[in-house]
Amino acid sequence: MGKTLYEKVFDLHTVRKLPSGQYQLFMGLQLIHEVTSPQAFAMLRERGWKVRYPHRNFATVDHIVPTHSLERPYADSLAEEMMRALENNAREFGITLFSPETGKQGVVHIIGPELGLTQPGMTICCGDSHTATHGAFGALAFGIGTSQVRDVLATQTLAMGKLKVRRIEINGRLAPGVYPKDVILYIINQLGVKGGVGYAYEYAGQVFDEMDMEGRMTVCNMSIEGGARCGYVNPDATTYAYMKGRPYAPPPEKWDEAVRFWESVKSDPDAQYDDVVQYRAEDIAPMVTWGITPGQSIPVDGVVPDKSQFPPSEHSLIEEAYEYMGVKPGDPIKGMKIDVAFIGSCTNGRISDFEEIVKHIQGRGYKVAPHVRALIVPGSQLVRDEMVRRGYDKIFTEAGFEFREPGCSMCLAMNPDKLKGREICASSSNRNFKGRQGSPTGRTLLMSPVMVAAAALAGEVVDAREFFGIRGEKGAQS
Amino acid sequence: MNDLRRVRISGKAVSVRGNDIDTDRIIPARYLRCVTFDGLGEHVFEDDREQLRRSGQLHPFDRPEFAEAEILFVNKNFGCGSSREHAPQAIMRWGKGIKAIVGESFAEIFFGNCVALGIPCVTVDEATAAEIQALNESAPNTVFTVDLEQMKLVADNGKSWPISLAEGPRQQFLQGRWDSTAELMEADEEISATAARLPYFNHWR
Questions:
Q1: Residue at B202 is within a domain
Q2: Which residues contact A260 (CB under 8 A, 6 or more apart)?
Q3: Which of A280, A323, A440, B205 falls 20 to 30 Å from A164 in CA-CA distance?
Q4: How many Å lie between the alpha carbon of B23 and the closest alpha carbon of chain A?
Q5: Structural domain for A414, as ranges
Q6: What was the ipTM of the complex prediction?
Q7: Are residues A104 and A207 in the same domain?
């Protein structure tokens, strides 16, 4: 009987079975950032432990960095303290830190892939739930807490149970103007925000076969919003082509050996799954969230659903969402006025995300609506440099967007980029939780980057396909 | 040596009702700007508490009758969203400290973080959750015991309900092995052997 990629990679990295019945699992790569690591390093120091394999750990700074200026010290003294702690910890324990001075700083889930650190067949962890992103390469990648960060620093291993595997198969072709972000919002809408608890998600079928790497990252990134701790796509020629030549990718003389290894970890054709679900690409439209969980979404031409469509145990959450968002059943989402537009994050802050928007706004004289504050936040310094090289900074600035420095920014608003009061934000990020974007009463509408850009220009939620006249061409990916 | 075993945990309870309560709500991101976990307890559920105060109500964590609670009753998918360990750290540092959580289901990363901190998260069915929350709210002085040996929740009025917990973490609590680092370090040679069989371990060099 064949095996899934999940089982093969898990087995390869299993150190031993623990007395509790769990497994001690080796972590091929740990990524570190400033928010969830200082306490882990402090515990190491207290106990007099070293980092076991410093060369398998890499750090960057993303959550707290301001995006209007990189100047030090940061105006926020707490942010400055966290940055210094990370610099000291990296130095003391011998860990490579991609700080802004290196030119390679960025959101941790953007820089891992772009530096070639993220590779198929690896186990990858980080004190951040969106670590699932790296599954796009056929790695097992998951978020952990700070105590586990400490465990990995000290031993490069974790205690873990085995997950079940659900194959999510989508065949057919996405319509023009429908993007990977819509695919994952659709999946979460169908399976629910708790549907993936206890599972790893394997994304498969024609839609994923044809999707580019950055699109696959967008989908895997939000696996956790569906409750699945990790999600992955089996590696293929698209994966290898994306990796070739990146700084930490295998060198040319090792390339064939590496590809053989990567091919060997793919799910076997006769692999057994704990569950299989199938959807049709044609059923997926541009999605927008209307509520306070990523599962509370509707197609852009849909209306806020009535609670009677949900099981009784969900009714109180649905009512809470109506109240918090200020919507009622039957309200269309189209036409909802927005105050802020945010394009960036580990979900959608990559070059192809911005490229797809530029394709629709370049040379067309659009301006951001006068009442809208619109932020373009590149996912990394390398993404930003490439945008400048291509002239995107000017295109966005001329259209009235603010072109910022890289970081997590308004996805979770740990830096100065925050909503005020009950502002409504069209956002390319991943969470529409209450208070997520920095105001305890702020409201978030999740959607694809192209949909956010259209909303910024129109001043309200619109169908980007109508607004930009997207039709006919092959569905690009963002 | 502290006894790390978690066999029976007794105390008064507090109920926070609702499904899908995420870790941003448990501890808003602005309180993650810190290099230690000290002081997080007072900010637990801060925005939810403030919103209720403004509308003239009190969050369970602000009601005097629950101020001594050491067990938390919740509903489905508690702790979803961000992996921030700051969430259970805040819960365990509030008041007398929450030492066990009983709910219908838990998000996985949150559950794992709680194991690492020695806080069992045990599950009950929907009807039981409703019953124990109602009992807790109507009789806040009721003392509950989470019994991981017998796998039941017992109230001091004599009632009891079955609870569930995966066998792996259950054994970690019963054997006092939830503080995992020491145990992981024991496998020194096996760790080296695993590293040696990973083709990418030295960056393919």
A1: no
A2: none
A3: A280
A4: 9
A5: 286-467
A6: 0.94
A7: yes
